[in-house]
Amino acid sequence: MNPLRKQRLLIIVGVLAGLGIAVGLVLYSLSQNINLFYTPQQIVSGEAPEGAQMRVGGLVVDGSVRRDKDGLGVLFDLTDGVGTFTVRYEGILPDLFREGQGIVANGTLVRQDYFEAEEVLAKHDELYMPPEVQQALEKAGHPGAKPEQAEKDGY
Fold first, then answer.
1. Closest among 73, 103, 100, 76 to 87, alpha carbons compared
2. What is the C-alpha to C-alpha distance for residues 64 and 68, in angstroms, rounded to an integer?
3. CA torsion sign, 123 to 103 to 42 to 90?
4. How confident is the model at residue 153 (pLDDT cuts 50, 70, 90)?
5. In the CATH hierarchy, which top-level class contains the domain 36-143?
6. Can you say how many angstroms the Cα of residue 30 is from the centroid of all Cα atoms in its chain?
7. Which end of the chain has less neighbouring CB within 10 Å, N or C?
8. Collapsing DSSP states into helix, strand and coil, what is residue 68?
9. Global confidence as pTM
């Protein structure tokens, strides 16, 4: 083989190898930072991967909020009318957090029935519900899916 052709071939192979490594690193980085949304029904049915970072949303079950006696920890159940699981959060909850209201939590699924939240987001007024939670409740046929006033106001 001609030395010039051999040199060109080595350069092409080197560039392709570098490009392959760069693409691999980008894909790995994106897969680590992906944050998918799951409904309680999907979590309870096993569609959500355990140990993965994700967002979950639904309604806080009435009477399910349990607070630690000597800390900021709180446990509560989250539902979409079909599936229900327990969420644990360590920290100060938003002022608008209350039972029967829609929330979105960011964190890690420990088991199919237990979610460890790093952040809890509550809706900002009675008429608003996060779009993902709204769609999940409508899909599950939950009666709290659309507030009556929101329908009247055209939301």
1. 76
2. 13
3. positive
4. very low
5. mainly beta
6. 16
7. N
8. coil
9. 0.63
